[in-house]
């Protein structure tokens, strides 16, 4: 009996050690609310809405310690609509993220799978749409710069550096996985630097497409049909931003630009709800420039207030050059680190080109006029 007890204790210790070296975490977020919209297709609406700030999701995240500061890592993350129970990202089981790779404490990590680009990783957190403050509805028109991560990159390999005294950087390449090597491929890179209360970041993203065989588009017959904002041969998105923190206040500015080439006959899709009337690319190129100023204020540990103004200047060719003016407001009360109540308000007005109507991101339909207002009250829970 005396010999059995030490053996049992040793087995228990070894088991605890193995568990400490390998872990799998179940996590998720639920975001649901009630939204009033002033005009959708000519009528005001009241709707129950899911993913108002952050898309509702659940996922599995795991790591295995391989020794010497090296780990095997993976993430499988599924998006869904809380009100209907349906899968998001065009019905993908793990449409938000799905990757596996290696991570080194000294050299950074390499991962493969369906992943976010470097603009999302580094620049988006300086914009309210890329954070848990504002999120989905605060996206720049049509989420043209992907700061709200409307899309992910399939078949991608990604490098993410460690933190070098506040400096981080990374890059991504997405394979076409077809014999048409240049069609349906993407690449991206970005960097950020933090020193005291100052944070700066920059990023670049490019998609290559074939207008005669649209793989990446809002319309067409390719595998990614319906998930991309633009139907164009080439999309180049780049930008930079700065945040400065003083006590409970964070002030920020972000500039992004999206250029479209080989775009004759292409279109612009607001979200994934189809092409809005008039949003057709009339020339061989198009451009959208976004200027966002934002402010966040932690009034108390429980109450957070925030706001942003975004001016978007665009040119779709053929004299179609609408300007979008968007004001966004946010108020949040946190019951705990996991549960909060929020109130959102957005106003968008389109000047120039009266045939172009307002369309706030993630709503189910565009306005019948050049202005649109949306107000959402909701609850968010993390687990």
Offer a few descriptive terms.
single chain, 383 residues, Porin, 16-stranded antiparallel beta barrel, 6% helix, disordered N terminus
At a glance:
With 383 residues, this protein is mainly beta. Helices cover 6% and strands 51% of the residues.
Structural account:
This protein is mostly beta strands. It has a single domain, classed as Porin (Beta Barrel). Helices cover 6% and strands 51% of the residues. The model is unreliable at 1-18 and 271-278 (pLDDT under 50).
Write the layout of secondary structure elements.
Blueprint lengths: L3 H18 E19 L2 E8 L6 E11 L2 E10 L17 E8 L3 E8 L2 H6 L29 E8 L6 E8 L10 E11 L2 E11 L21 E2 L2 E13 L2 E13 L5 E2 L17 E13 L4 E13 L7 E12 L4 E13 L19 E12 L1
Antiparallel strand pairs: 1-2, 1-3, 1-19, 3-4, 4-5, 5-6, 6-7, 7-8, 8-9, 9-10, 10-12, 11-14, 12-13, 13-15, 15-16, 16-17, 17-18, 18-19
**CATH hierarchy class name:** Mainly Beta
CATH superfamily: Porin
Low-confidence stretches: 1-18, 271-278
Average pLDDT score = 89
Q: What overall geometry do the principal axes of the alpha carbons give? A: globular
H and E string? HEEEEEEHEEEEEEEEEEEEE
The largest sheet has its strands arranged as 1-3-4-5-6-7-8-9-10-12-13-15-16-17-18-19
Number of domains: 1
Taking the sheet with the most strands, its summary is:
16 strands, antiparallel, barrel
Number of strands: 19
- Total DSSP helices: 2
- Label the structural class: mainly beta
N/C terminus separation: 44 Å
């Amino acid at each position: 009996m005396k010999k059995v007890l030490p053996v049992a204790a040793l087995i228990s210790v070894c088991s605890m050690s193995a568990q400490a070296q390998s872990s799998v975490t179940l996590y998720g977020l639920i975001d649901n609310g009630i939204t009033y919209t002033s005009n959708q297709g000519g009528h005001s609406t009241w709707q129950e809405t899911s993913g108002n700030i952050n898309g509702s999701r659940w996922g599995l995240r795991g790591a295995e310690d391989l020794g010497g500061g090296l780990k095997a890592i993976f993430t499988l993350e599924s998006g869904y609509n809380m009100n209907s129970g349906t899968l998001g990202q065009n019905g993908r089981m793990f449409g938000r993220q799905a990757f596996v790779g290696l991570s080194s404490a000294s050299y950074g990590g390499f991962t493969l799978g369906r992943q976010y680009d470097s603009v999302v990783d580094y620049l988006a957190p300086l914009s309210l749409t890329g954070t848990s403050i504002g999120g989905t509805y605060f996206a720049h028109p049509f989420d043209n710069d992907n700061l709200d991560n409307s899309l992910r990159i399939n078949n991608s390999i990604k490098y993410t550096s460690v933190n070098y005294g506040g400096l981080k950087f990374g890059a991504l390449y997405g394979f076409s996985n077809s014999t048409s090597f240049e069609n349906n491929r993407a690449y991206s890179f970005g960097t950020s630097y933090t020193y005291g209360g100052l944070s700066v970041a920059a990023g670049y993203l490019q998609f290559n497409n074939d207008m005669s065989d649209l793989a990446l588009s809002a319309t067409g017959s390719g595998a990614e049909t319906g998930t991309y904002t633009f139907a164009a041969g080439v999309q180049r998105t780049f930008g930079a931003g700065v945040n400065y923190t003083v006590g409970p206040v964070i002030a920020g500015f972000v500039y992004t630009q999206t250029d479209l080439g080989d775009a004759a006959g292409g279109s612009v899709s607001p979200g994934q709800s189809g092409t809005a009337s008039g949003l057709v690319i009339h020339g061989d190129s198009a451009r959208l420039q976004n200027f966002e100023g934002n402010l966040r204020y932690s009034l108390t540990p429980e109450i957070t207030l925030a706001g942003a103004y975004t001016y978007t200047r665009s040119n779709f060719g053929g004299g179609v050059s609408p300007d979008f003016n968007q004001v966004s407001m946010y108020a949040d009360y946190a019951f705990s680190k996991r549960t909060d109540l929020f109130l959102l308000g957005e106003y968008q007005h389109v000047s120039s080109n009266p045939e172009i109507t307002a369309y706030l991101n993630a709503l189910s339909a565009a306005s019948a006029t050049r202005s649109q207002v949306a107000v959402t009250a909701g609850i968010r829970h993390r687990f």
